[in-house]
Design a protein that fits this description.
The protein is mainly α. Helix content is 69%, strand content 0%. It contains ten helices and no strands. The two termini are 34 Å apart. The protein has one domain.
Length: 277
């Protein structure tokens, strides 16, 4: 029996193609007005609304009160990771499946790895820009005191990278859920919205019933928001968390588990062409 050698692109070329696609994906992203508003600017809009609506209120124990902007900033940063990754990626890829883009890619030498490098790279770039914009507005407009300790920014860095990577991979995994590009928004946005409401983004997590907190603890957004709260909220707020602890090891473990789950699901479900096409 003879075997057929299938030519493969060198790893270096695969990487170069992927990196070149990052720029293309970022440009395409910012040309879509609805995506820019509902993923990139939405956390900033919500931070502004909550900061203005509750400007007369203070949050926290007596003597350590913080403003509404400071209280909601961690949740909006976490929500930005979810929106830039899961929501944006799932809807974008579902549309590319529906309009035939992926089918056209199947007829080109573009490796799947290069395609994913472009997609995940776009999420990392836009997510970083979004976080920078949130921090800039919070600090300059709403006078939120940002942390100065290097260890706090180190925690922010790894929570951001792990959170946005997990969200992006889960978005790819969920992209096969909508049956068409037209239904993608209707299917994916409610999932992202429900997760935000039960994960301490729009409501204080300690205000939720215990059973709902337990449900939220299964999903990564709750842990991403908790990691961000450890960075930006005073230490006195730690007693409001489950177990009265920031539990950063738990943040890393749960997000890593979901990252692996997303990779496994993507590996077995992603196709250039839909099976029913």
């Amino acid at each position: 029996m003879t075997t057929i050698d299938i030519p493969r692109l060198p790893a270096g070329r695969t990487l170069r193609l992927g990196v070149s696609r990052i720029g293309y994906e970022v440009k395409t992203y910012f040309r879509q007005g609805d995506s820019v508003f509902f993923t990139f600017l939405f956390p900033l809009v919500m931070l502004t609304i909550f900061s203005v609506a509750f400007s007369e209120q203070s949050f926290g124990p007596p003597g350590e009160e913080i403003s509404a902007a400071a209280f909601y900033l961690p949740g909006m940063l976490a929500a930005g990771l979810l929106l830039s990754g899961l929501q944006n990626m799932a809807i974008d890829i579902a549309n590319e499946k529906s309009d035939g883009t992926l089918k056209r890619f199947a007829g080109t030498p573009l490796p799947v790895v290069s395609y994913f490098i472009g997609k995940i790279g776009q999420v990392l770039v836009t997510g970083l820009m979004q976080a920078a914009l949130l921090l800039l507005v919070a600090g300059l407009v709403f006078r939120v005191e940002l942390p100065t300790e290097p260890e706090k920014w180190f925690t922010f860095a790894w929570v951001f990278v792990l959170g946005v990577s997990t969200s992006a991979v889960l978005g790819i995994a969920l992209s096969g859920l909508p049956r068409s590009g037209k239904s993608a928004t209707a299917v994916i946005i409610p999932i992202a919205l429900v997760l935000q409401f039960i994960s301490g983004v729009y409501l204080g997590f300690s205000q939720l019933p215990e059973w709902l907190q337990n449900i939220a603890s299964v999903f990564p957004l709750k842990w991403m928001a908790q990691g961000m709260r450890e960075v930006f909220l005073p230490a006195s707020f730690e007693v409001l968390e489950q177990g009265e602890s920031w539990n950063l090891p738990g943040v890393a473990i749960v997000c890593a588990i979901w990252l692996v789950v997303g990779l496994i699901v993507t590996r077995f479900t992603f196709r250039w062409i839909r099976k029913d096409s």
